[in-house]
Amino acid sequence: MKSDMEELMPRLLPVDLGENTGEFSVTGPPRNPQEYLRQVHLEASLCPDVVVAEIDPKKLKKKQTVNVSVAGCPAAPVGFSPSLSWQQQQVCNFSDMRQRITKNRIHWRNQTLDENVTMPKVTDEDGWRRFCLGETVHLETSSCHTEAETGPGIDYNKVGFPPFLTIVSRLNQTTVLTVLEILIGWFEEHAFVPQLGLWMYSLLACLEKPLLPEAHSSIRQLARRCAQLRSTLESEMDETLPALNLLICLVARYFEQNDLADQPEDESQD
Fold first, then answer.
1. Between 20 and 30 A from 14 (CA), which of 39, 51, 165, 196?
2. Whose CA is closest to 261, among 270, 269, 252, 85?
């Protein structure tokens, strides 16, 4: 009679045990395919149908958990939220910019950088903060800012290198995401500055879709930080408001993080 296990799992290779089973050696090497199959069959018959592993709880490592923030953005104060038409126009402009960068990337990548441009290594976080934001912002010194303004030319080491196409076209996706994360990390602890806005816009324009999980998390962090800072503004005329609204708009509307999107005030009242 076949066992229940055999009924559920029929043999794919039927084994003919034959009449001369006494001459069959379990320990010796098989002399032909039939003996090999018979050895396999015998070994399988000796195994229990159900095996329960004995686990020592003391040897188990502490369970790891991953905290993923899914919180949305703080609502914009009354009068600070952009209209839907404004948001749609910004998404359209941004899409056009991305297409132009993609189309001309090879051309700009092959252009020679100025002698004063020395791009940091990918892992040099401090170098990227200095490169993008400048020593004036990174070191939070006012003397450097004065010297940069009164000097014969622009000292990009002090005011930061703008995201020229010859620079951003050289960044692969790993570098784009790395620099994005570095600058967002800086932004978490500092106020908004124009250099940061330029780089955020340019890096987002170079960020490929579909987003990697790391990119997804980073841009949501950026939008939340922009919304948090916006909620502290005292006036609708604050010069940082358009830039903050723009970054929130791009993250939410273009990169489809819809739960972070600003809802126009006329719609929210319907």
1. 51
2. 252
Reported pTM: 0.69
- DSSP string spanning 135-162? HHHHTT-SHHHHHHHHSSS--HHHH---
8 Å CB contact between 131 and 160: yes
105 located within any domain: yes
In angstroms, rounded to a whole number, what is the distance separating the alpha carbons of residues 5 and 7?
5
Nearest to 145 by CA among 195, 98, 186, 82: 195
Q: Is residue 231 part of a domain?
A: yes
Q: For the chain, what is the radius of gyration of the CA atoms?
A: 32
267 belongs to a structural domain = no
Q: Supply the range of the domain harboring residue 190.
A: 84-140+156-260
Closest listed residue to residue 230, CA positions, set 6, 66, 73: 73
Contact 209, 254 (CB under 8 A): no
Q: What is the pLDDT of residue 67?
A: 39
Residue listed under structure tokens 């953005």: 73
Has residue 229 been placed in a domain?
yes
Digit-coded pLDDT (tens) for 143-160: 444 344 434 567 888 889
| Nearest-angstrom CA–CA distance, 146 and 155 | 11
pLDDT digits (tens, 9 = 90+) for 91-101: 999 999 999 99
